[in-house]
């Protein structure tokens, strides 16, 4: 994407590698293993809307857990799609019929899920960083990543992604430009659908 004029520094907090959702500590969150196992079931098999709406996860407080709101929003989206698929597929059937559109939706959901994993990392720690070569301003990139997270499934357009511009930095830590550009190209592709 295109570099823009100069900005300010960001403080990077820690992150758990491979986490699917924002990881929280010292506040209530969902058990990571339980959530990961359920998401694997969503991506691998047809589940009923009731199964998605009724799932309950153990809450944790004294160890790392997934942000409850992020997980709940993801499950709401899955349940809404399952309801639509059931209504348009086999009348009022409890299970959606495996069709090409079902498979396309799963692939789209998986793709968006992978793209949004970047947004679940803490600000300042979403892409690899560089110091002595040109990079994008982390604060500006993080603001745009948060915007993508909020709008990818609704109002985000490919033109909006193409128009994104970030300040380039050299003498302070910046995000690796090729990594950010590759992610933006994938987001643009997802927004076109």
TrEMBL record:
Protein's cellular compartments: Cytoplasm
GO cellular-component term (any): cytoplasm
Keyword Thylakoid: no
GO biological processes: cell division
Keyword terms of this UniProt record: Cell cycle, Cell division, Coiled coil, Cytoplasm
InterPro entries associated with the record: DivIVA_domain (IPR019933), DivIVA_fam (IPR007793)
UniProt family annotation: Belongs to the DivIVA family.
Entries under NCBIfam families matching the protein: DivI1A_domain
Annotated protein name in UniProt: Cell wall synthesis protein Wag31
């Amino acid at each position: 994407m295109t570099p823009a004029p100069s900005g300010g520094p960001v403080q990077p907090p820690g992150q758990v590698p491979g986490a699917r959702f924002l990881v929280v500590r010292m506040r209530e969150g969902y058990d990571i293993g339980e959530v990961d196992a359920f998401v694997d079931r969503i991506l691998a098999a047809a589940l009923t809307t009731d199964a998605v709406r009724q799932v309950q996860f153990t809450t944790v407080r004294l160890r790392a857990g997934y942000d409850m709101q992020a997980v709940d929003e993801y499950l709401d989206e899955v349940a809404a799609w399952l309801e639509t698929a059931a209504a348009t597929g086999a009348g009022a059937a409890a299970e959606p019929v495996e069709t090409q559109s079902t498979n396309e939706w799963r692939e789209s959901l998986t793709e968006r899920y992978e793209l949004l994993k970047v947004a679940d990392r803490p600000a300042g720690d979403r892409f690899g960083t560089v110091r002595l070569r040109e990079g994008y301003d982390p604060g500006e990139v993080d603001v745009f990543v948060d915007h993508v997270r909020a709008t990818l499934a609704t109002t985000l357009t490919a033109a909006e992604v193409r128009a994104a511009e970030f300040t380039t930095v050299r003498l302070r830590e910046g995000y690796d430009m090729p990594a950010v550009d590759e992610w933006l190209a994938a987001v643009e592709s997802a927004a076109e659908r």
